[in-house]
Amino acid sequence: MARKRIVAAVALAALCVSAPALAAPSTPDAARLAGAEKLLDAMHYDAQIEKILDAVTAEVQRSIRENLNKTLLEPLPSAVTAKIAGIAETHMRSAFNAHRSEMKKGTELIYARHFTAAELERLAALQSDPVMVKMQTELPEITAENMALSQGLVASAQAGLQQEIQAVVLDYLQKQGDKPSS
Fold first, then answer.
1. For the chain, first and last CA: distance in Å?
2. Does residue 182 lie within any of the structural domains?
3. 62-101 burial, b if ≥16 CB within 10 A, otherwise e?
4. Would residue 181 count as lying in a domain?
């Protein structure tokens, strides 16, 4: 299960990296693209992405340390768990950093598709509002907390799913005359 969570975290990171490229089937007009670029600048997009990456990485590492040994007969030494957490961080940061400009361009395209040029200009102006500034400051932690919440909900659903799949496989094997080893 911990391995599945690690794979899920890596898949999520990969999806986050590739999603902007997949999300924009058509290119919005130049005014919308310029408005989206101005909005991301006003949002301090690059700094926000770095803070979000830090928070998400910390959450993945916490999850690895907390969950890795749950499915093992013998717990791994803390040095091994730390090494695995370090590998996860290295891969996540590498993936995000390798595609940072593509992510930003993809994000601009997404905003440009959803908002008019005038709306984007208004959103950029709102970025200096004190409540919006606070939201930008809190967003990395909110993202990490939301990720932990999502992982918990998925994990609780996963147990039932695994049991149902195992029952189907056992039923199939029994009908085939095979006896499962456990």
1. 18
2. no
3. ebbeebbbeeeeeeeeeeebeebbeebbeebeebbeebee
4. no
CB proximity list for 40: less than 8 A, separation 6 or greater: 104, 107, 108, 111
pLDDT tens readout for residues 4-53: 444 344 444 444 444 444 444 578 999 999 999 999 999 999 998 898 88
Note the pTM of the prediction, 2 decimals: 0.61
Q: Which domain does 87 fall in, by range? A: 2-176
Q: Which residues of 115-135 are buried (b: 16+ CB within 10 A; e: fewer)?
A: bebeebbebbeebeeeeeeee
Number of separate domains in the chain: 1
- Kindly report each contact of residues 166-172 with a partner whose C-beta sits within 8 Å and lies 24 or more positions away, as own/partner: none
Query: Element (H or E) spanning 139, and its range?
Result: helix 130-176
Report how far apart, in Å, the C-alpha atoms of 46 and of each of 24, 37, 135, 170 are: 20, 12, 16, 50
